[in-house]
Design goal:
CATH architecture: 3-Layer(aba) Sandwich
Radius of gyration: 18 Å
CATH class: Alpha Beta
Order of helices and strands: EEEHEEHEHHHEHEHEEHH
Distance between the termini: 29 Å
Structural class: alpha/beta
Strand order of the largest sheet: 6-7-8-3-9-10
Number of helices: 9
Largest sheet: 6 strands, mixed
Strand content: 25-35%
Helix content: 25-40%
Number of domains: 1
CATH topology: Rossmann fold
Amino acid sequence: MSAILEVRGLGKDYGARTAVGAIDLDVAAGEIFGLLGPNGAGKTTAISMISGVVTPSRGSAKVDGHDVRTGARAARAALGIVPQDLAIYETLSANENLRFFGALYGLHGAVLRERIGWALEIAGLTDRADEPARKYSGGMKRRLNFAAGLLHRPRLLILDEPTAGVDPQSRNHIFESIRALQRAGTTVVYTSHYMEEVEALCDRVAILDGGRVIETGAIRDLCERHGGANLEAVFLALTGHSLRDA
């Protein structure tokens, strides 16, 4: 499969501090790709550069063949991002939130109504769509946050720790929604510091620590390449979770 995301030597410095060194990544169209690492490993900085929110200090990133700096408009059209922090308006209903975000994507009329209905169904919020978001549980707010990133049906969807603080039911719903999107052809980049999440969801994973990629591959391949005991020690040191916990 061709790569929908190509990252070469991408890095970011803040003064004398290097947040991300110079990472290389290739994500194939149609796969769920995990970025695994502890808090502070550089995951959010990396996806912020990929999405054009943060200007890299070096390197390049392409989304669907478009450079995120020189072809920013086309790259953004192919990309959806669900941030770790909630980006919804709690005084507005789910319908109103999605109408607002849909308008930002340039959607209107019958197309916008169809997309809102589709996103609400994926998020499992159809029956609560007219209630103010402030009345939602934490998990429901996460699911609305998720829905907002889907409205323009991006080819590549980036999810930054989307299950943070959610209840098990909402976590399972988010997982099933991600799998359904993959079946429909959407590529997903999923960041987490939970080993069991990336093992359950992801076709491949890149392990980040200290702003660098220390290993990439399928979990099974990584185990075969390094030996289960050695790899388990790496996961335990990085994430606090052993392979046996998954």
